[in-house]
Amino acid sequence: MSIIEAAPRGDTDLAVRTEGLVKTFGEHRAVDGIDLRIRPGEIFGVLGPNGAGKTTMLRMLATLLKIDAGRAEVFGVDVAGNPHVIRQLVGVTGQYASVDESLTARENLWLFGRLQGIASPRARSIAAELLGQFGLEEAADKPIAQFSGGMRRRLDLAASLITRPPLIFLDEPTTGLDPRTRGQMWDTIRYLVADGCTVLLTTQYLDEADQLADRVAVIDHGRKVAEGTPDELKIAVGNSTLQLLLADPDEVSAASEVVRRVLGSDPVLSPERGRLNVALDQADLAADVLIALRTAGVSITSVSVAKPSLDEVFLALTGHGTDDDSSTEENR
Ligand SMILES: Nc1ncnc2c1ncn2[C@@H]1O[C@H](COP(=O)(O)OP(=O)(O)OP(=O)(O)O)[C@@H](O)[C@H]1O
Ligand SMILES: [Mg+2]
Fold first, then answer.
1. pTM
2. 30 alpha carbon – ligand 1 mean position (Å)
3. For the ABC transporter domain, which residue ranges apply (predicted)?
4. Which protein residues have their CB within 5 A of the ion that is ligand 2?
């Protein structure tokens, strides 16, 4: 596309490059100096709790919000200076939220294609292809007013793919979806990448980042606090987690003391009283903790060993949980 070729290029080896990206709302720095390097063909995950600045960062990169300070490039094209070029390079979900509810899924996709300047027969065949690819064939001719949340999400993603953009932003693509629909979404995202796309997705779920992302940046209060492969992040918190529910919630501090003595580290206290999670380097250390708790006379209602949660990754990386208001700090 000539318009893209004409744009001045910086580092064309990267799909996304940001340096010191900042967005301020009043006094609040929602995005506070973020540096990113995203390679073409990878799935890059941005992991962070509510209010971390994930959506704000994506909106700046998609030219939907002004960049207050710092710099961003998409395939070497400066975002602030070339918004019209960036909009051709990037597909953003959520952008099409105001689709016409009375039209069918097929009609909506066709209409988006037409609005992007695609000829009618071609728009029709792209719509049919996307409906098949997203498992929406059966519902294709129903008005989207009758669609479930998961179907809407898939239609939204399908709409953002009509022009086959090389870079796709997915803002929490599976939040609120049931497990089966989540799995379908993950498959779709993998398919996009196999087809040559680069994907930048935000999520609140470690398991999602783990399943999908090649690399992950962890964001907290507008800042990047860690970056690495999902495995590298998990190693920071141990390979597994012992989840305990105490019979008597008042024994939390006694139980914490036992954990500290056995493992030399503190457990993560859940906002739910009497529940605590213990990061373990090896799953078999769980037995040592349980024996020590019984010796100390601390009774337990339930026990399980699981993979670390996002909460624990956060606690390990930032010293606080994903929910700042949780009782984690004062319970210690
Ligand atoms: N238009 C706005 N005006 C004022 N403050 C805003 C605006 N948009 C976002 N914020 C604030 O910026 C911070 C980051 O918000 P953002 O939506 O980027 O977080 P997020 O990481 O996407 O969270 P979530 O997981 O809940 O979607 C929050 O404190 C939010 O209240
Ligand atoms: Mg958000």
1. 0.79
2. 7
3. 16-246
4. 54-55
